[in-house]
């Protein structure tokens, strides 16, 4: 038994529906009465942690498509399922844990291959939008994950490193500064330590760029994941809500719609929070009949009754070769 358990692996889901538990515990009690505070305005609003407490790259591109046959990406759903469930088949490395991500954030080692220290990025790169746009090696160091990125010199986070990072004040301070740096690049400002966000003063210029620079949607997915890994899960929903409002209601980021709904929302681990965001999205999504992200249609009692009768009417038959099968 010990050997069997030692080789046991978590059975990964094989369909989008198996990956998505958002509506599995759906109830009318968490249906919002109307437009609730989002954490996004020129004044400070409640962050995700407050209103959530009241309730309980892929096979599709990160962009909106006009195809009437658009469907959800299994690759995206599986990737985010594994992230939300903390990588159930994660294998601990046998290599010594050197805490390279933490040491980078403590300004003890530079990022590789560029040889740049975190303090240089935080103090010298803010507002240098060309550098932030065209350099592709820093993002994996600024926002580490427990999965490999495109910079193979960057190192995956480990569970021990995550614990140490979350208990190190200097690292956490720089991490929030890095988050603020990237928000500024996208035309957004961080309002407070609760994660509330709003448009920055140059939002029009930056939103125009973000709408056309779709590789940044992959970066944003990574940033959201890293927030959750390093103790800032509550920061995700205000940012995702802002993107939903801008893309669906204000139409300032129309190209981002699909990435928000397929990726950004599903980085959030609390199903009730995902439901709130998706209900808001469903109110503003056009065409309404093409909304793919739930809730699933409710089955009538008549259909449920028919289904139950069909199951009960099945007969169990013994096959000569020694196995049972069901026959209608």
Core attributes:
328 residues; mainly alpha; two-stranded antiparallel sheet; 16 helices; globular; disordered N terminus; disordered C terminus
Query: Helix share of residues?
Result: 40-55%
Distance between the terminal alpha carbons, to the nearest Å? 38 Å
Shape: globular
Largest sheet: 2 strands, antiparallel
Structural class: mainly alpha
Strand content: under 5%
The parts where pLDDT drops under 50 for at least 5 residues are 1-7, 26-68, 306-328
What is the C-alpha radius of gyration, as a whole number of Å?
A: 23 Å
Q: Please, how many helices?
A: 16
Number of beta strands: 4
User: Kindly state the mean pLDDT as a whole number?
Assistant: 81
Strand line-up in the sheet with most strands: 1-2
Could you give the order of the helices and strands?
HHHHHHHHHHEEHHHHHHEE
